[in-house]
Amino acid sequence: MKRFFGRREGDNIIFEGGEAIHIRQVLRMREGEAVIASLNDENDYYCTLVHIGKNQIEARVDRIEKNAAMPERNIVLFQAMPKREYFETIVTKAVEFGASRVVPFKSAYSVNHDFKRERMEQIILTASKQCERSRLMELEGALSFDKMLESLQGFDVIIFANERENEKFCEKDFKNKQNIAVIVGCEGGFNEEEKAAIIAAGAKSISLGKRILRCDSAALAMMTLASVLSEN
């Protein structure tokens, strides 16, 4: 059953904009067909399309169930700004592996310092529908390196991917942890001053193995391990 993001209006759900276009023009769905609506909360709304108009589509709610794909941990990815194509891949995979938030930041080796929010929001929407998440992952604006360090306060565990570290990933780092921060560098990694500052902020520096990973691969590996080991 197809999933679309909409909004509640009385007893019905309304689909507009790109979602309405997808239903009407791409999929050519008809009144009476069943869909799942997401309202950016913890539930799935099983609906029947009751009116397909030019600018919006209405659906009747038949039943409500808790969304099975909702993340159970608060995992936040702090990602040093990489090239655009890498960042788009990283954001997509962060959605799929259950990140609640991505916080991009600027580091010494960043060549890209910003992103197009409208495009990234569409990527998050598409990825959420693909992996059946009912709540959209948050994406913050790019922070300075110092602001990123300030944002690390309050986490149960902070894991920092350091390509020159020898300490390995440990499952006990995530046992019974609810709030988890993951820090990954951009294409050039971090300089020595940045590494020292991240560790001083309370991060545990760990290795992802003997091979140097591309930044999008490192982010994917970190998110996979954090999500699986924390039972997210």
Quick overview:
The protein has six helices and twelve strands. It has 232 residues and is an alpha/beta fold.
Task: Tell me the total number of β-strands.
Answer: 12
Kindly estimate the percentage of residues that lie in beta strands according to DSSP: 25-35%
* Through-space gap between termini: 24 Å
Read across the widest sheet, the strand sequence of neighbours is 1-4-5-6-3-2
Mean pLDDT: 91
Can you give the helix content as a percent range?
A: 25-40%
Low-confidence stretches: none
Chart the SSEs and their pairings.
Elements: E1 3-5, E2 7-9, E3 12-16, H1 17-26, E4 34-38, E5 43-52, E6 56-66, E7 74-80, H2 84-96, E8 101-105, H3 117-130, E9 138-139, H4 145-150, E10 157-161, E11 179-184, H5 192-200, E12 204-206, H6 215-229
Parallel strand pairs: 1-4, 7-8, 7-11, 8-9, 10-11, 10-12
Antiparallel strand pairs: 2-3, 3-6, 4-5, 5-6
Helix pairs in contact: 2-3, 2-6
Features:
28% strand, 29% helix, 232 residues, six-stranded parallel β-sheet, 6 helices, alpha/beta, single chain, elongated
Give an account of the 3D structure.
- The protein is α/β, with parallel strands linked by helices and 232 residues long.
- The chain is built from 6 helices and 12 strands.
- It has a 6-stranded mixed sheet. A 6-stranded parallel sheet has the order 9-8-7-11-10-12.
- Strand 7, helix 2 (84-96) and strand 8 (101-105) form a beta-alpha-beta unit.
- Helix 2 packs parallel to helix 3 (117-130) and helix 2 (84-96) packs parallel to helix 6.
- The two termini are 24 Å apart.
- The mean pLDDT is 91.
